[in-house]
Amino acid sequence: MRVIVTAAGGPGGRFVTECLQAGGCHVIGVDANPLNLRHSGADETHVIPRADGQHYHHDLHRIAEPPGHFPGPTLGRGADVVMVQSDPEVAALCTEQHIRQWSMDTRLFLPSPEAVATAQDKWAASQVWALGDVPQPRTCGIYPGCEIADLLAYCGQPLWLRRRRGVGGQGSLCSAEEDLLKAWLGPNIPPDLWIACQYIPGHNCVCDMVYFRGILAGWCGRKVLSWQMAAVAQTGVSGASAVSVMWNDLELRQIADQAVRALMPEPHGVFGVDTMLDGEGRYYVTEVNAGRFNAPGPGLYLRAGRNLPLLAAICAVEQRIPVPERWRPETLPAAYAMGRTLDASPLYLTKREWDDLEDDRWA
User: What is the pLDDT of residue 255?
Assistant: First the structure.
């Protein structure tokens, strides 16, 4: 199977590439950053424009479409499926206009345009989840004229300021100080930039899910125990996990599935669901990444015997759900831990190796 991985030089793309190659796929890595692309590990690579570039769709088609299916010269022998690993590219490709442009020889594996648009707007997603009784932090939009005191009274202290769009906690702040919150928002608050949320202390738990025509084909969960460079992040959450452990709680799966189906009643494609687990064992959905996996989850899941990117590629190309026992949603993978730090390859540990560290700092 020939698979294009977009944003191949980023962390998400690299872990997806590793999983696909472990399943025998030929990976074609594409990225707008030529330096990052050298880190992809893909079998072949191509530099393409950014998703908002004028020639993005044209150049991606030149790589993806087999010879004879593209009106002009192509690059290589084409691909069976495109696996998207960045939100801007998910949004660019997931429109009715561009979906119709792809031939049956090269498939996309993406949710509906409506689900993607809603998921990429945290305030819109929160409103949908409220209608669907999905557990989430208390959330409200921030508009010109909003009083910080009113936001604190509704959401509680400290207040979690978040950008409506974007990933990795960019621009977020957690504080109970009114002056600091006001300064962070600035004097002229744009009407569609910020949301205010209840702060949920606890651990970030992620559930990556693969759906095929409304059926959950496979899933895995992980719990983030610490973050890289947390000391320099305003909220203590940098967006790049340092230590993660397998966390296959069926309640996490149920709540994540509820959040996804509120966005798309018959889900199709990949969804990465972020939640916060409080001290009383309750999950609160904070966002859903529609159309892509959450890095670095696929690398950890692969060590535990669950290859979700390969599952997604097979579903897309063969238009069916594979039947091996190891991929069934009710079959839980082995317990593994993952440690990451800057300028080093990830470290993977079995549960026994993890326990033998005799270090309870992450408990």
Answer: 97
Q: 3-state secondary structure string, 283-312? A: EEEEEEEECCCCCCHHHHHHHCCCCHHHHH
Cβ neighbours, 10 Å, residue 271: 30
Question: What is the per-residue pLDDT across 78-94, written as a single tens digit (0 to 9) for each?
Answer: 899 999 999 999 999 98
Tokens of residue 314, six digits: 């097979």
Cα–Cα distance measured from residue 103 to residue 348, given in angstroms and rounded to the nearest whole number? 39
Q: Order the strands of the 203-212 sheet from edge to edge.
A: 283-290, 269-277, 203-212, 215-227, 241-246, 336-339, 347-350
Q: Rounded distance, CA 194 to CA 117, Å?
A: 17
Half-sphere exposure of 170 (CA within 13 A, CB side): 6
Q: Return the amino acid letter for 329.
A: P
- Quickly list DSSP for 109-131: ----HHHHHHHTSHHHHHHHHHH
* Interval 50-59: pLDDT, tens: 999 989 998 9
Short-list 247, 226, 221, 249, CA closest to 238 = 226
In Å, how far are 118, 174, 288 from 124, measured between CA atoms?
A: 6, 21, 12
- For residue 299, the Cα-to-chain-centroid distance in whole angstroms is 13
Is residue 64 a contact partner of residue 56, using CB atoms and an 8 Å limit? no
**How confident is the model over 240-289, as pLDDT tens digits?**
777 888 898 999 999 999 999 999 999 999 999 999 999 899 999 999 99
Pull the structure tokens for residue 178: 């009114």
